Amino acid sequence: MRRNQLRIPPLAxxxxxxAAGLGLTVFATYYAAxxxxxxxxxxFDTAVQYTEEGLLSRMETYATLLRGVAALFAVNPDISLSExxxxxGHLRITTNxxxxxxxxxxxxxxxxxxxxxxxxxNTQGVTGFRIxxxxxxxxxxxxxxxxxxxxxxxxxxxxxxFTDPVRRQAMERARDTGRRAASGKVTLVQEIAGxxxxxxxxxxxxxxxxxxxxxxxxxxxxxxxxxxxPLRMDDLLGSILTHPSPDIRLEIFDGRTLDEEHRLFRTExxxxxxxxxxxxxxxxxxxxxxxxxxQWTLNFIGTYRRDQAWWMVTGLFLTGTVLTVVLxxxxxxxxxxxxxxxxTAVRLRESERALRESETYLRLMLENARxxxxxxxxxxxxxxxxxxxxxxxxxxxxxxxxGQSGAVIFTREDRKRGAPEAELKHALETGLSRDDRWHQRKxxxxxxxxxxxRPINNPAGTPIGxxxxxxxxxxxxxxxxxxxxxxxxxDTAINSLxxxxxxFDRTGRWLRWNENLETITGYTRAEILARRPLDxxxxxxxxxxxxxxxxxxxTGQGTxxxxxxxxxxxxxxxLFSGRRVLLNGxxxxxGLGVDISERSRVEQxxxxxxxxxxxxxxxLEKRVTERTAHLRQSLESLEGVLYHVAHDxxxxxxxxxxxxxxxxxxxxxxxxxxxRDYARRIAASARHMDELVHDLLAYGHIAHTPVxxxxxxxxxxxxxxxxxxxxxxxxxxxxxxxxxxxxRVMANGKILGQVILxxxxxxxxxxxxxxxxxxxxxxxAGTVVRLWxxxxxxxxxxxxxQRIFRIFERLHNTAEFExxxxxxxxxxxxxxxxxxxxxxxxxxxxxxRFWVELPRA
Length: 857
Known about the structure:
857 residues; five-stranded antiparallel β-sheet; Beta-Lactamase; 24 helices
């Protein structure tokens, strides 16, 4: 047990060997690579230091030379050109000072000294000397000495360096500080041929008296000129870098800005050295130095290819890695081989145990599978094993069935047809034979069995027998037969329904329908299955049917009328009813569709009859309207005739009344009492007749005169009417009360005034004898205005309240109350012409309350 716990798995042991080997390889590779890297870095640092020191040393040498020239001009201000040439000749500038273009002196002049300098230069053997550029300025600094006098330097004689901003900045710095000063990057005027190089100049100031003045002002005042030297950068660095390293590139910049504008120098390598190396090692360093008070930046870039030393490092890493992988692989292979052998032995033992357990399990399974008959036969069909389930199904004990032919459980008919042999043959040919048929028990009873037969093969694949597994499904067969009978009955019942029967789920998938659906629509069964229920309708019927389906789903039932579309395009009116049912928990729709073509025909005939009735009614109303209009026209014509007749009657009536009055006045004494009575009666009748004609004229005038409606003030009309009746009111001692306010109404002022006057006269007239008339006038205002005129008169019975508004209607004779019976008819006609109404509320002996109603203004 302890050995098993301490044993390391093969893969883990191999990984451990691999990790240890790789770790050792990485450590050795790192150490070797670091050694090579340090050696390369030392080489780069040495080259940088050598270049920096060489450049600074060379610049110091040039500074010393420049100080000597400055001292020469300081102690000997009258030195000649030949003396300066002999001095510089001893220096051998070209040989001893490589990179130096020359050494010279520029003198400071004011404008008045220019011609004197030209004359002096001519005496020194320099013909054609001139100061350039030629432009007026406060002071001049032309070059007068420059050696050696080669072709390049001869061009520079007379050049005023103070006119160039870069040179001038360095000259001013040298002048003000008393020290040498280097200029920025310039192109020398000596660049007249070949490739132009970047250059710069170093100036050393020379003062009168030789010594450097103490203050800046004194230095500017005593400046005599500048000793200077021009330098070409490529020539200068070429003399310093005599053996340049091909792996190091040097760039020199004026100042701190590293760009093309400020670059003074860049090393150029041969083309084969510029090629990129595989995985190069790069070092870079920026070195600032001071040159004549001006900072230069030296940019060293070292690019080293991986030479033999680096390949040795790579080889060391690859060799160590390969050896480590090979060692770990062999370790893993050996461990796996040992583990495989051990696992094989374990699996063999487990397989033997599993086989024994499987045999036991199979035997128990066969013995306990009581619902299944499981038995095996040899190739001839003789039974060689028989389980408990087979004994229960067929009634044969194992002891009495073993060795017998398997055909013993087949029916006599199947044995005659050779069914047992055919079953075994089919199993041999196809590997499986299904056996669903009637079988026979030991007691001769039959049972329906569903089973399969498979061949049994040995390890070589050769058939050695058969196994059959069967189950009694007699009850299921009887249940299916009963179900089939019930389905046949339900199909007959559904197909006998007087209409279309349907059943589909909520997705519209058909579940069942009767033959009427196919007969009526003309679609086959396959075509119906390919369609949805809504496909049998067109809009707007489709929308109503969809609404019915939703209603049935929500409420459980519903009906709708819709037109069913047949295959040939006919539209058949149907009444569809639906109910919700649950099938296996899923809501479905079922119902009937009944043909309502006959009902639709009857309803159509009813609608046509109703339409004819409406047409007859319209025609009748039209005729009544026409006759009413004709009658109204006739009545209006009659009213017009009456108006003219009444108007023509007034003249003789007035004459009759006048002459009767004259007769009584002039001949009354001649007439006896009876004659005078007759004359008075004639006069009274004439006056009554005149009043009657007057009222008829008023009625006709109101009936025929065009009426214009406008806002009318009721209070003004009432005041005018009361003014006209003031005499009668005073004579009767009547009390008239007005209740304010009285609003404005839409009416005709003249006609409404006549209405109010007539109503007030009635209230004053129809009062019992001995009673003081009392009249109350008020108004009720809303969207319409109702004006009330209430009195304490004799009153009117209810049955006469509509009659009094008809023309010539009187409830009392003239002996009781005077009048023509037309006054209230005039009021009614006037209100009718003004789109108003008139009425009365009254009881006998309790007074009357007349009202008129008009729109509010």
